[in-house]
Structures are given as structure tokens and as C-alpha cells.
Specification:
Number of strands: 2
Order of helices and strands: EEHHHHHHHHHHH
Number of helices: 11
Helix content: 55-70%
Strand order of the largest sheet: 1-2
Shape: globular
Structural class: mainly alpha
Distance between the termini: 46 Å
Strand content: under 5%
Largest sheet: 2 strands, antiparallel
Length: 327
């Protein structure tokens, strides 16, 4: 048996040494490499075309006045329209959504990874529910938010606690829109956190228990700090998913027009994504409104990128602190 000529060579410079290639040329391997590279190129080209189209057509309508003024005069007039209320409303609902979804998603992932038996029927049902939740159309979440949060919870507070005929909580509000988005993005946080927890070596848990720590102390002081970058990655993905969603907030909080900014959790709000929908469907003159439409889409993309950059900077800062602490 020839043991001198290895048939594989590994490039250990890549992440975890995953790059490998055979020393012998193979036509089908070459064809498959080209096919995967071509598929990647198509995706990058589609992204570039979309960004280039939005940037070229939206830049002409972009100005400081457009970003810093409201639409109190005429939202369809290119010389008077502004999107500041939409930027404020979108930012508030994304921040509220993040506050709601991160704790619930992390706690659920910790239960599934650290406490639940992987082979039990109950665990399989929960995992199946999470996976199915990720595939539910966003408009269904909007109807769920209308029925559960507004009619059931909000209506019950008005009827049984406040005892008022005028709805206070039982109406569309930024709180209900944010909670609906949190339910929609919950699978993203759960899956990202769960994968991050699974990547932590079991030896760390066993060493902590061997030193006398309880399981709860091990999870809080050893496991979760190690998984923090993965948890924040889930938060970043949920922000990206929620920032541009319109269907879940159609019935739960978005307003066609508001003269003031939302001041309470029970107030409605204006939204960039919903404003794009209005401009593209309600405009009396679509050609005249087109520059505003593209500029609003560009503003939405910039806001989404800005929120993601803030989250990435926070994650990088936490990683740096963890390295300094020796985690």
C-alpha cells in the first residue's frame, strides 16, 4: 500500500482549515467550482444592480431638507416632501422590537440547548414550531398582531382595567407593531443563539461544574458570555429583517399621516417602508412622485445599514472587552 503520496492538500490559513483541494485535476470538480462561483456572482450582480438603481435614481431627490423636514404640506410634492417623521418612527419601532425579541429568543435558545432533552417529543415540537414560524408569510403576522395584541390584550386592558369606552390600548400603536415584528423575527434570534451555544466546547461547562459552580452559574458566567457575539449576530439579522417589513405593521401601528411624532407607546407612527407603499400606490401623479419614491427607498436603505453598523460596532466592542477579560 502506497503511503507516501497524499491525495488531498489542506489550506490551513482559511477559517478552521476548511479550504481543501485534490492534487489530481478532475473535470467535474472544476465544473462544479465554476458553477458555484457563477451562482455567487449572480447574487452579487443582482445586489449591485438593485443598489446602483436605487442610488442613481434616489440621489437626485436626496437633500438635507428632505431628510430633516416633515410631510405636513404635501407628501407627493418633490419640493415640499420630507421623511423625518418616517425615519423617527422606523427607528423607534426597530429599537423596541430588538428590546422585545432578544431576551425571549435567548431564553428560548438556552432552554432548548442547555435544559431540554434533545430526543424528547416536547423538544421536537418546539423546534418544529420555531422552524415553521420562520416560514409564515409576514402578512399573517400582521393579522395575528391585530387579533391577539390589539383586540385581545389591548381590548382586555381597556375593558377590564381602564374601563373606558374610548380605546387607549385596543387600537393600532407602535407598541403592538413592535411586538408583532418581535414575534416575526423570533426564529432568527433563536436559531442564531442556539447555534452559538452549540459551538461552545462542552469541556468548559464540565470544568465549571467540576469547580463547584451550579448549572445556572455556568450558563450565566461561562456559556452566555462566550455566545454573546452569536447572540448579537442574531440581533443584527433580526434588525435587517424587520427594518424593511411593511405587512406586519399595516394593521398594527403604521399611519398614513400624522401631524406629530409618537410620544407614547399607544401612539401610531409613520414608517419609511409604509411610506414607500403609499407613494407607489396612492400618488395622483406617479411620474412626479418617482424621485421622492426612490429617495425614500434610499433613505430606508441608509437607515437599515446605519442600524446594522451600530449593532456591529457594539458586537466588536463586546468582543474586545471579552478578549481583555480573557474569555
Amino acid at each position: 500500500m502506497d503511503t507516501q503520496t497524499p491525495m488531498l492538500s489542506f489550506d490551513r490559513s482559511g477559517p478552521a482549515g476548511r479550504n481543501f483541494k485534490a492534487q489530481k485535476f478532475d473535470v467535474w470538480s472544476f465544473f462544479f467550482s465554476g458553477l458555484t462561483g457563477f451562482a455567487t456572482l449572480i447574487i452579487l450582480a443582482m445586489l449591485a444592480v438593485i443598489l446602483f438603481n436605487v442610488l442613481i435614481n434616489g440621489w437626485s431627490g436626496m437633500s438635507w431638507r428632505f431628510l430633516s423636514s416633515s410631510a405636513d404640506q404635501d407628501m407627493f410634492d418633490v419640493n415640499k416632501a420630507g421623511v423625518l417623521p418616517m425615519i423617527v418612527g422606523t427607528t423607534i419601532r426597530v429599537i423596541l422590537m430588538t428590546i422585545f425579541v432578544i431576551p425571549v429568543g435567548v431564553i428560548t435558545a438556552v432552554y432548548l440547548t442547555e435544559y431540554a432533552h434533545t430526543t424528547s417529543i416536547w423538544t421536537r415540537i418546539i423546534r418544529g414550531a420555531v422552524n415553521n414560524l420562520a416560514g409564515v408569510p409576514s402578512i399573517v403576522f400582521g393579522l395575528f398582531g391585530l387579533g391577539f395584541f390589539i383586540s385581545y390584550i389591548g381590548g382586555s386592558i381597556d375593558d377590564n382595567v381602564l374601563r373606558t369606552a374610548e380605546p387607549v390600548w385596543g387600537k393600532p400603536a407602535i407598541l403592538w407593531a413592535s411586538m408583532t415584528l418581535a414575534v416575526m423575527t423570533l426564529p432568527v434570534v433563536i436559531v442564531a443563539t442556539e447555534e452559538s451555544l452549540k459551538a461552545i466546547p462542552q469541556g468548559l461547562r464540565e470544568a465549571s461544574l467540576a469547580l463547584g459552580a451550579t448549572k445556572l452559574e455556568t450558563i450565566i458566567k461561562i456559556v452566555l458570555p462566550q455566545a454573546l457575539p452569536g447572540i448579537l449576530t442574531g440581533g443584527i439579522l433580526s434588525v435587517s429583517r424587520a427594518a424593511g417589513e411593511v405587512a406586519p405593521i399595516l394593521f398594527t401601528g403604521a399611519a398614513y399621516y400624522m401631524a406629530s411624532y409618537p410620544k407614547a407607546l399607544t401612539d401610531q407612527f409613520m414608517d419609511l417602508g409604509y411610506h414607500v407603499f403609499i407613494l407607489s400606490t396612492q400618488s395622483p401623479n406617479i411620474e412626479q412622485t418617482r424621485p421622492i419614491l426612490y429617495a425614500t427607498v434610499l433613505a430606508l436603505l441608509i437607515l437599515t445599514f446605519a442600524l446594522n453598523i451600530v449593532a456591529i460596532l457594539v458586537r466588536a466592542q463586546m468582543r474586545r472587552k471579552m478578549r481583555l477579560l480573557g474569555h
